[in-house]
Amino acid sequence: MPEAWANLASVVSLHDFDYSLADQYLQKALSLDGRNALVFRRASTLAWSRGNTERAIELNKEALTLDPMSLALYVNIGVAYYQIEQYDEALDYFNRANTISPNFSQSNYRRGRTILAMGDANAALALFEAEPMDGRRLMGQAMAYWSLGREEESDAALAEFMTDTYLDDDWQPYIAAVLAYRGEIDPAFEMLEQAHEQNNTALIQLILLPDFKNLHSDPRWAVYERKVRAIIK
Description:
This protein is mostly helical. The chain is 72% helix and 0% strand.
């Protein structure tokens, strides 16, 4: 079954970080069925993890032709466009996802974060305040308030976000993203180091996002990026 090979590729890439072996499994899956939406989805995830975002978008769009009502595909394409800072396209796909499944998981946050990147902090804040996931709501509010010059409210949202409720649940990379957004470079790196020490494997994909671009000019960023990706085989 091609799906079995594709899912095995997902396991070895996401848990063992053996991208070479994952690629072999995906090629086996494609040889069995070259028109399988799940196989394309798994291949896109591998391409994204390798930093080949444009290829990930191509693969997801190919999958979308086979499964045009897939919520996950619209979200994945939106995230990929967000990663390469093509925000109009990202918002378009997030809106399409919301049409298929109103208020999909983190819908308000994802659309709000994209709109914030586009420069409309007021519209972004309205979406963040409607986000039902508490962590994402606080994350968005802390950034939007900061952009609007409402520093006390940003500080309050960030303080709530930095409590043990979130620190004990592996939210350190997301807290670091807020700190980076606010220009608090040293605390952002400290939070990223905590995430790495806790073996937070989500870092491999999270560091590809533009959320951390305020850190990119710091020489510590290149060192950190190499350290995070060192586990890849």
